Amino acid sequence: MASCTFADSPAPRHQSPQFSEGKFRNPVPMFKQSAADLIGITWTFLTAKNKNTVPSGVIPVQALTRAQLLAAPDNTLFRLGHSTLLLKLDNAFYLTDPVFSKRASPVQWAGPARFHQPPISIDELPPLKAVILSHDHYDHLDHASILALAAKTEQFLTPLGVGERLVNWGIDAAKVSQLDWWQERKVGNVRMVATPAQHFSGRGVTDGNSTLWASWVFQHKDLRVFFSGDTGYFDGFKAIGEKFGPFDVAMLETGAYDKQWPDVHMQPEETLQAFLDLKGKWLMPVHNGTFDLGLHPWHEPFDRIAALATARGVPLTTPEMGQALDLKAPAPGKAWWKRVDPTPG
After folding, report:
1. pTM to 2 decimals?
2. Which of 61, 114, 142, 279 is 20 to 30 A from 10, comparing alpha carbons?
3. How far apart, in Å, do the first and last CA atoms of the chain sit?
């Protein structure tokens, strides 16, 4: 099924099976927190967070140049931070959820600050075939980064409604394609499919779930890669695995989880199960190592998923920020996070 563009579908959300009674919704109703729950979570964030949610040492970053990227072989991935991934496929570049700003926040004077600088600046990036967005939260959709990327980006692929935000920010509507779940678009010779996720959306107090969220499948020749965006664990992983697996590499959210918000982010055990459902060959944990968005120690997602993968014999790749990863033959990577804090807790 093809994607929706602004030219052929000015209001595609109303045609979506995911849209009901003015909002996008998950197929299975999610746990609804009470006002008291939300107050309690906010109080914990303000007064009782684990002291190790921010690293005390330096996150290792391998700096990149445009020349290095242009010289890199096809089927190479570079992790730039959090859920920002640069893929080189068919001699072109594809970028997911670009966040290059100092903070994942509506303002740059407050909110979660980066643990590390991006391995490369937006100015130094080569031209991009496409920017692919999973949803509109601030740690995935960064206004300043989108505007800075506009001139060098050929296409923006978004879930339904997110593209409208981009156009409202001044992005050329002809560059924007909005996709519902299971819709696809081919950019260059790369097939990209918006697949289901279990999450929510919104950038303010009044726009909750007015835009859709999605995971993504990348396919080029015999390479298949999965990018989860943000999601809780749900049966959609099995459907995606049956339809598009096996995946050479599955980049799966592993971080900012908590029992107080069980539906929208996966515990590491759920990340591992999602990987198995997807029929993945290599697991790459993302959504970690860049921003303080949870209550757990910053390194805990790496520790837990590494232990789980070892116990189940699952191949795990954990590249440093900026380190090249061969998507057809990934390297396991070193436990770089263990070297960051002198005495991690």
Report:
1. 0.94
2. 142
3. 49
